[in-house]
Amino acid sequence: MTVEPGAAPRRTPLTKESVLRAAVAMADEPGAGLPSMRNLADRLGVKAMALYHHFKNKDALIDGMVDLVFSEVELPRDDDADWRPAMRRRAVSMRDALTRHPWAIGLMDSRTNPGLATLHHHNAVIGCLRAGGFTIAGAAHSFSLLDGYIYGFTLQELSLPFENQADIEGLADTMFTQYPFGDLPHLTEMMLNQALQPGYDYAEEFAIGLDLILDGLSRKREAWT
Amino acid sequence: MTVEPGAAPRRTPLTKESVLRAAVAMADEPGAGLPSMRNLADRLGVKAMALYHHFKNKDALIDGMVDLVFSEVELPRDDDADWRPAMRRRAVSMRDALTRHPWAIGLMDSRTNPGLATLHHHNAVIGCLRAGGFTIAGAAHSFSLLDGYIYGFTLQELSLPFENQADIEGLADTMFTQYPFGDLPHLTEMMLNQALQPGYDYAEEFAIGLDLILDGLSRKREAWT
DNA sequence: CTGCGTACCTTTACACTGTACGGTCGATCT
DNA sequence: AGATCGACCGTACAGTGTAAAGGTACGCAG
């Protein structure tokens, strides 16, 4: 009376990997945020408690999701001829990954258990900088500065209350009526002359700041002991 | 049969301000995170639903909390003689505020309704940069870069899985036993030669990156149209 | 003084969350 | 054949945000 193998009451036994991929996919859906255990289980054709066979608790699952995001970032290689374009590529790739998975960035804090992909990522970055002639301390400075900027810029970008020109104009409207904008002359000026100009794209700021930082790093590279 | 005024069945009618201060105080308690509506109400000697008389919903309350954090940041003034030390002070003050209220930084994304203190802050920063000789575009670049770095650095700092030397050593121990550290030579080297050195303090990295950025800004100040 | 609106707070209820505890079923090993 | 084990399910519980409706006291119009 056993079920025929072809009937497949459960297609495949569920793995850490498949659960994580589903969780990331659900979190990526616009406006979704982290899925609940029950919703995630439903999506996988399973009941909630089944997930606890693969993850100690939800926190462990989230750690896995964050590590999966890190694994999408393009790594530099030790033998990259030139550290600067390598670091630039990595920064852009990292920002891309964080924008693809906007739920990830707010989770960085409070997540104190880095996964393997995360550690490999850090290792590769440091290796590239060392090969490029940075001292250990210099590589630490550079790493801290670059990653800080990447996270912070992306965090800011994601928290902008608009995504396109129409949103900006709507926002400006409601703000002008809601707040005493006479008190905020500089902010007003900047909105009128920058954000509200046709074709303005905040994303371009990323490269401007990044290049300024890279300039600074190459200037300090030999000074940093 | 009315209650004597001295009996005070309710000391004081609860204001947006008092609720926000209590909420921030609770969130600041180590390891607490955002309080639930019920816990916050208890602390105020009130039932949970009373809070909804002062805030539309929990999100609005959180917006207020974030704005309160911003109000603690030392503002530059238009007439600050020199933009550079003013920006430096502001950056340090901002990092301090975010470290005093570590729950705030993860909330920056998804919080798309800036409060008055936030807007005044932005206005003052832009004003200081403009007075320092930056063009509108230049001020926008500088603002984006500086704030990105401040947020990002602090986010990284708060997510470090240790707070003192003992924690670092404990962490290194468990990591070395848990992961194939032969695969991570550069990371290992950096931990051994930096993080594990006596007296190492990650907080010092903040000033190093900040000064590099300020150098870059003053170099670009006149070039940026 | 009466009566009514309005500000503030409470009660109750509902849908939803993470997860502890125990059970069930089939495959594999001895 | 029986034991063991991995994968999944059912049930239950404490805690969450908040909608709906009710109460109670004060300030002001008549």
Question: Can you tell me about this structure?
Answer:
Chain A has helices at 16-28, 37-43, 58-71, 83-100, 116-131, 136-159, 165-178, 185-195, 204-220. The first copy, chain A, has 225 residues and is mostly helical. The first copy, chain A, has three domains: 5-55, Orthogonal Bundle (Arc Repressor Mutant, subunit A), CATH 1.10.10.60; 69-160 and 204-225, Tetracycline Repressor, domain 2; 161-201, no CATH class. In chain A, α3 packs parallel to α5 (116-131), α4 (83-100) packs antiparallel against α5 (116-131) and α5 packs across α6. In chain A, 34% of the residues are buried. Mean pLDDT of chain A is 89; it is low at 1-8. The structure holds a DNA duplex (30 and 30 nucleotides).
Please give a handful of descriptors for the protein shown.
Tetracycline Repressor, domain 2; flat; mainly alpha; 3 domains; 0% strand; Arc Repressor Mutant, subunit A; 9 helices; DNA-binding; 60% helix; 225 residues; disordered N terminus; homodimer
What is the CATH topology classification name of the largest domain in chain A?
A: Tetracycline Repressor, domain 2
Seen as an oligomer or otherwise, the chain set is homodimer
CATH architectural arrangement of the largest domain in chain A: Orthogonal Bundle
Biggest contact = A-B, 60 and 60 residues
Structurally, how many domains make up the residues of chain A?
3
Tally the beta strands of chain A.
0
CATH level 4 superfamily of the largest domain in chain A: Tetracycline Repressor, domain 2
Give the helix proportion of chain A (percent range): 55-70%
Q: Whole-number average pLDDT of chain A?
A: 89
Run of helices and strands of chain A = HHHHHHHHH
Radius of gyration of chain A: 22 Å
Low-confidence stretches of chain A: 1-8
The helix count of chain A comes to 9
Distance between the termini of chain A: 74 Å
CATH secondary-structure class of the largest domain in chain A: Mainly Alpha
Strand count, sense and barrel status of the largest sheet of chain A are: none
| Outline of chain A | flat
Structural class of chain A: mainly alpha
Percentage of residues in DSSP E strands of chain A: under 5%
